[in-house]
């Protein structure tokens, strides 16, 4: 069964709405209001129903990044040097409010699980593979705001894993990374273009203030030529990153990173990770996203990103921009 239809927005609920006039409306949005949102960080209303998801995918396809709409030279330089890039307002305020209403229920569930933990345990509750359990978070996997960045830095990208995490005071993630400088094909590298085996996107659903569990990173460690010694205290090298609600942090999993919440606020984040199409899913087998794939609109980015891995043979064609109807 496909994702539950939880109600159409005003556009789709309008009498006489058809595929044709939906497409006309998407064209109007692309040429009008969306074209004014910063030139590159395009987005469309995210509402949780199948027809609205189609509008989003159509808009994303119309706004398919080309060389003029890809990452800027400034962004490429900063990301390559630091290993991360913060994008503000990646989730529009209205969509953020709707998503947080849904996530409130997950936090209530997590708080119940936290009540069974001792103070010596990690004060965090995390739900893996969240998009197969929470339909409201599916469309964010193909957020048009971040698609140009994913396509720029991951070859033939595919969604690898998702999770939602709640960190109370004392909640932590220990310092780690995927960086293996002795295996040059298995980490962040540059071969005329930035390439990742694992690109992470962390969405802040609430503000993350200093001490509030923001990601602490060792900038540039994704490019290190020497492995970090486990006994080495690198606290002096860590930089804590704060975020505003709705921001997304793109970072290489090869960059050393960790987090610790030392505040009374609950850190609420949603994570999406992307890998080349040849790499397997983190949770479950190759069929992990099959239901989402089957329900996603043909030719859209959500369908492409949730295709099955299959070695070096592609299982679904990468979308191309459709031809806009002639007025």
What does this structure look like?
The model is unreliable at 3-19, 25-68 and 321-327 (pLDDT under 50). This protein has a single domain, classed as Jelly Rolls. The protein has helices at 10-13, 19-31, 50-62, 73-82, 93-114, 147-153, 290-295, 301-305, and strands at residues 84-87, 124-128, 157-167, 172-176, 189-190, 194-195, 199-204, 216-217, 239-240, 248-252, 257-260, 267-276. With 327 residues, the chain is of the alpha+beta class. Helix 2 crosses helix 3 (50-62). The protein has a 6-stranded antiparallel sheet with strand order 1-10-7-12-3-2. The protein has a 4-stranded antiparallel sheet with strand order 4-11-8-9, with no helix packed on it.
Summed up, what is this model?
This protein has 327 residues and is of the alpha+beta class. The chain contains eight helices and twelve strands. The strands form three sheets. Strands 1-10-7-12-3-2 form a six-stranded antiparallel beta sheet. A four-stranded antiparallel beta sheet has the order 4-11-8-9, with no helix packed on it.
């Amino acid at each position: 069964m496909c994702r539950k239809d939880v109600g159409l927005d005003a556009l789709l609920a309008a009498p006489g709405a058809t595929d044709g006039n939906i497409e006309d409306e998407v064209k109007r949005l692309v040429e009008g209001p969306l074209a004014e949102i910063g030139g590159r960080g395009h987005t469309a209303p995210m509402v949780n129903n199948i027809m609205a998801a189609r509008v989003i995918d159509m808009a994303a396809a119309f706004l398919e990044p080309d060389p003029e709409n890809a990452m800027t030279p400034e962004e490429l330089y900063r990301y390559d040097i630091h290993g991360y890039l913060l994008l503000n307002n990646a989730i529009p305020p209205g969509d953020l409010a709707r998503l947080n209403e849904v996530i409130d229920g997950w936090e209530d569930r997590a708080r119940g699980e936290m009540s069974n933990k001792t103070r010596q345990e990690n004060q965090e509750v995390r739900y893996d593979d969240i998009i197969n359990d929470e339909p409201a978070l599916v469309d964010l996997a193909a957020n048009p705001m971040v698609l140009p960045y994913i396509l720029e830095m991951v070859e033939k990208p595919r969604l690898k894993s998702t999770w939602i995490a709640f960190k109370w005071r004392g909640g932590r993630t220990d310092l780690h990374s995927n960086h293996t400088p002795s295996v040059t094909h298995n980490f962040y590298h540059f071969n005329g273009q930035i390439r990742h085996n694992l690109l992470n996107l962390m969405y802040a659903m609430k503000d993350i203030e200093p001490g509030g569990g923001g990601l602490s990173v060792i900038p540039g460690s994704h490019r290190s030529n020497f492995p970090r010694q486990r006994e080495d205290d690198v606290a002096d090298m860590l930089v804590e990153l704060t975020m505003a609600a709705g921001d997304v942090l793109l970072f290489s999993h090869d960059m050393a990173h960790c987090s610790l919440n030392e505040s009374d606020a609950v850190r609420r984040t949603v994570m999406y990770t992307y890998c080349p199409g040849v790499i397997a899913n983190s949770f479950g087998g190759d069929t992990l996203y099959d239901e989402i794939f089957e329900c996603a609109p043909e030719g859209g980015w959500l369908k492409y990103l949730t295709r099955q891995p299959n070695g070096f043979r592609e299982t679904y064609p990468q979308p191309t921009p459709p031809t806009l109807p002639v007025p």
